Amino acid sequence: MRRFVIGQAKNLIDQTRRPRPHHNNIRLLSLLASDPIPVSSSRLFSDMPGSDSSSSLPVTIDSINPNVLKCEYAVRGEIVNIAQKLQDDLKINKDAYPFDEIIYCNIGNPQSLSQQPITFFREVLALCSHTALLDRDETHALFSADSIARAWKILDQIPGKATGAYSHSQGIKGLRDAIAAGIEARDGFPADPNDIFMTDGASPGVHMMMQLLISSEKDGILCPIPQYPLYSASIALHGGSLVPYYLDEASGWGLEISELKKQLEDAKSKGITVRALAVINPGNPTGQVLSEENQRDIVDFCKKEGLVLLADEVYQENVYVPDKKFHSFKKVARSMGYGEKDISLVSFQSISKGYYGECGKRGGYMEVTGFTSDVREQIYKVASVNLCSNISGQILASLVMSPPKPGDESYESYIAEKEGILSSMARRAKTLEEALNKLEGITCNRAEGAMYLFPCINLPQKAIAAAEAAKTAPDTFYCKRLLNATGIVLVPGSGFRQVPGTWHFRCTILPQEDKIPAIVNRLTEFHKSFMDEFRD
Amino acid sequence: MALEYDSLNENVKKCQYAVRGELYLRASELQKEGKKIIFTNVGNPHALGQKPLTFPRQVVALCQAPFLLDNPNVGMLFPADAIARAKHYLSLTSGGLGAYSDSRGLPGVRKEVAEFIERRDGYPRPCASYLSYHSDPELIFLTDGASKGVMQILNCVIRGAGDGILVPVPQYPLYSATISLLGGSLVPYYLDESENWGLDVNNLKQSVAQARSQGISVRAMVIINPGNPTGQCLSEANLREILRFCYNEKLVLLGDEVYQQNIYQDERPFISSKKVLMDMGSPFSKEVQLVSFHTVSKGYWGECGQRGGYFEMTNFPPRVVEEIYKVASIALSPNVSAQIFMGLMVNPPKPGDISYDQFTRESKGILESLRRRAKIMTDGFNSCKNVVCNFTEGAMYSFPQIRLPPGALQAAKQAGKVPDVFYCLKLLEATGISTVPGSGFGQKEGVFHLRTTILPAEEEMPEIMDSFKKFNDAFMTQYDNNFGYSRM
């Protein structure tokens, strides 16, 4: 009987993956729309005997690591799952929907929305991928001379020119030299290649630091609210405590030292040892660029309280307003006269953002300063278990930190591409911000940097009640309705946390410029009809 | 100082990973001083002169720079099938190599992996019996190297120190390091050196019983097949025994099969754990939970630096798969270039393709050379004084037993070093050969080994083995005092 039932369950699961007739999909969607917990089709069968029982299988939902169950990551969570099913269904049921495509505004993934990679970078990568090209005369007709020269330079820094070999666990030395030089050029203060740990994207670096810092739930990490949910998820996975500090929406998401102090004291009184302060600058989802003065106060705070400063600076090239400028925390600390002995600082950078947007390559690094050698050995040891990060990503990271210079053959086209992308982002940020501010009950701070808008939505009581009845958070309720009406995928503010009782959503500025007017129209129309339905 | 050594997570401090530990660091120091070092500490073929296969590099180069595909002269540099394949893989992405893919990996590539698994295990589509052997792309997750996949699965299984994972001794220290980092318990089961590193189910039973008597809940069992560092290939009978054991004891089986292409004898070809499990039929095939791991780093591909791997889950409840998916999504996506390498590996050029002959020639050349080198190395070690070496049936390593005389044990103690570390450091300093001491992998008390790879170039092998023999025999003579030797 049990085998038969498992077979039935398997059949049903398999069926939901195949294209299904229209009416079944509507039923499936309405079921999904009302279910507040992260969902997939299989959830419908969880009550069937044998399909998910804790009976005799060693690994079931009841017996897996509870930290895994606790952690959440809304950027690719419930709403995205629904969107993917809609997208699949759109292929066969075009007329069933009031939109003809799903537009993913949930994730900072520029090249998935037609942003082009920087030509010079990809030329170098292609040559390093297939080094035999460098021996062919025809190559000169297809590649710029400086990309060929750069590929040679990089290959000379790789033992045996073997781009398929595991490298040093911190990354190829020559590439770290280039990155250190880039950091020095950016900040005006020296950087040591031995302080650099290259990782598959910035995220693994964050995980490594959390692993080092957290021994139990008594270890706390101060995180901004709203925050990019990598931090909350990583802290949960490592069994630590997230100590929130609230950014001030009214003052453009400002970071108040008094708030940091308050939260620190609060945590201490609960028996939590706060070990680090995470700052995202430019902010995600909030987009604010910290003032230098603010940064100095933060550095002093960390020094005084003995906290490691975790500086997430992955959006350092994304600043859209003339009155703000990116300053690295390293530069700020050094210009205050603070050196290795004064402040423990980990600075994260990535190739996924900026104007290069190379998310799928998985490249990044952390610069680790102000740690004793025995601690650094431990960081090295953890990095070595994974052997090394992917070489192609390492090469890209070095290119990002040492791009073409004036006089280089590719400089003109490189600058044109870079400025084209950044100025377009600035325009899109402004257009969307203005459009959102026109909507009833919505206020939106400007995006000073990063890639997102994070408007505050003042939901009417009726909407909140409807959300409660549907057992969904109000901002999730709004975003689901929006998705079903417009095909636009956003992330509800609850995915980033927010001041309790306030509601937000995060929307990227990344759809191509020519799509923005249509997006604005659809959003505006939907919002009007939503408010008509739920206005108090 | 904000972060003191004392306040670091204990699990981090406890974890060890000898492959890039003391010997490697010392070798790197000596290299900086100008000494010629032969790095045989890690399975890193391209670092020792193995050339990458041409076809995949052509395809990925085109994917890196898709504007090449628009150039009318591209055919002068790339064969037509590489061009077609690049277009195919780019069409599977949603924005080329630079866009995050699905967190589980590109669906199109996972489908190719599923089809590969079915073909490999003798059930190519169209398959007569859909339910009896099936590989579901939804249960295949691509990862940044197989190691990341192992970490993800163990992170799911280990809840705390009370959870034990059965791990072979000797083992590849990714397992011990990860279990340490996750705060779990390693439950060792000893492979039998005198039986060519065979696996005796009685050893397994003993290990489990002992762990349980200490209050440990044994949750999973790791097998590495072909073995690392030991190289043994499990027979079908052995795999059946293991699967039956996992069924009886309610253990998840973690099948590390990254060396499945590296087989150097014909008596025991590679058979996947999944195939054996499915062939066993009910109740085993429906109830034993299995995770199988593979990679682009080994085999004849050796593309370690790409960081490409996958795992396939069998008999995992949907809600658990969802949770694993959720954790994967925090890392956003595995790197897309490596996913394309994976697609190419499971779907290589076929007879009739323009690149087929070259691809076959290159692959065969590598595999046949590896087979020869496995033999040269085994024979070479066996010709040395006090060294006994099992044949490398598979994988990429040789794991000779070094019977250290009491004099050497004493000298090691005086130097404050574990005996095999002492030996390996002396070997390094005398010959430049950088190995990993057996203690890094685990071994029986008082029995010492070292691990080396079979990867140095074939033409350099005789000289390397001579160099080793010269050092070893001199070392043995130096410390020989006829009082009896370390041996199992």
From TrEMBL, chain B:
Pathway: Photosynthesis; C4 acid pathway. The keyword Transferase applies. Its cofactor is pyridoxal 5'-phosphate. Residues 81-466 form the Aminotransferase class I/classII large domain. SUPFAM superfamilies: PLP-dependent transferases. InterPro entries: ALAT1/2-like (IPR045088), Aminotransferase_I/II_large (IPR004839), PyrdxlP-dep_Trfase (IPR015424), PyrdxlP-dep_Trfase_major (IPR015421), PyrdxlP-dep_Trfase_small (IPR015422). This is Aminotransferase class I/classII large domain-containing protein. It comes from the Eukaryota. It comes from Brassica napus.
